[in-house]
Here is the input.
Amino acid sequence: MYNRILIPNDGSEKTEEAIEEGIELAELTGAELHTIFVVNITTFENIPETGVWNQTKEIIKKEGEAANREVKRKCEDVGVKCKSEILSGKPHTEILNYAKKNKIDLIVMGTTSKKGVDKFLLGSVAEKVLRSSESPVMVVRSN
Here is the structure.
């Protein structure tokens, strides 16, 4: 059914349920799990590359490494093979590119229930991935 499952991981609570769901699916199907953390450079696009920007990027990267380590630990606990990677760019673009490059069979993502102005202003990475992905996408809503 699934050979490779991708969980985009932003280290937030909203991904916790998606991580659990993705690991359980990988365990049930014997799939290899992939988890990626994307350093969102769009937040800092208009800031010149300086020492402050580079320090901030390193802090975010370390947070991503810690988030990915936690997913790998959970996978090891149940015997699921897991690969992880830190990427930089626009989150939805990096997720879609990674999925295509690695022949991902299913993307499992967390989302919150933003509505109205928040959704309009902030957008939704999950929604962008859902609309553009060549792979099936499972969106796990957190409360």
